[in-house]
Design goal:
single chain, about 350 residues, alpha/beta, Nucleotidyltransferase, domain 5, 6-stranded mixed beta sheet, 14 strands, globular
Amino acid sequence: MPDVVGWDLGGAHLKVARAEDGRIVEAAQFACPLWQGLERLTAALVEARGVAGSASRHAVTMTGELVDLFANRAEGVTQLIATMIAAYPQADLRFYAGRAGFLDAQHAAARPREVASANWLASAQLAAARRPQGLFVDIGSTTTDVVPFRDGSVLAVGMTDAERLASDELVYSGITRTPVMALVRRVPFAGVEQAVMAEHFATTADVYRLTGALPEDADQLPAADGGEKSPAGSARRLARMLGRDLEDADMTAWRHLAAFVVKQQQEQIEEAAVRVLSRGALDRGAPVVGAGIGRLLARQLARAMDRPYVDFAELIEGTSDAKDWAARCAPAAAVALLAV
């Protein structure tokens, strides 16, 4: 089988996975704040060359076309395709277009609606090919995918971001970049229930850092205030959400507040999963298949819903480290394996 490099061009991160003989041998994620300019992607691609190696076949999926650097998704798809061609001019580049399969650059640019934000479908397709049925849940830095599959088919109702938001198959909630203000409006603190500021002072990276559950290497972008990534720094940012200062309470109080925010996020994701499952397409014993940098939440979701849990790493072959990172970078690993 040919060696294939899979790429997931995100708006905040670049993910890459290399498959050799049908096994994932290396995978990694690199910070790539694409809204700051295409040069950010170019730099991240250079940084990722060590993972990509010398393979001549590359499979690409994307979500970065969404960022406000581009006037619309079609422009974003075209620009991202051009950036990949510039980075790998001699390579056999194929772009994932969902149910249309893999397209060359010319045809992919002509079908931006199918290429745009199709990375979730690649991951779900791989899961569907390797398990009889299940609820695929990929919890990343920014979003959560909730996608049922059965008998080799992905049973998604929505295909575009808009359709998926409407069907609860896409939840804009992740483990590092989600603003706290998107999760809670009021919180219990110091004996009262108070409103939360609508300001980008703190993110989920802060609350998971305070609860001790933030995965290693998960938080690759600057904090909301550009400050230190420590429990004290996170507590300071969280305090600002309440119009307070770090010194207004001890760390135990800030950790309790962080745990409350985490619970609200977990309930938000569980509610979406319940609505998706209410369609009745899956058996009661169908597992939750967890992927993404925040898949610890997928495991907790399975426990809360009294369902078995299957880690995405169990679906693929490779070394232990490679499989773990492939699960974090599921779409990149999926397009590499699907392209084979």
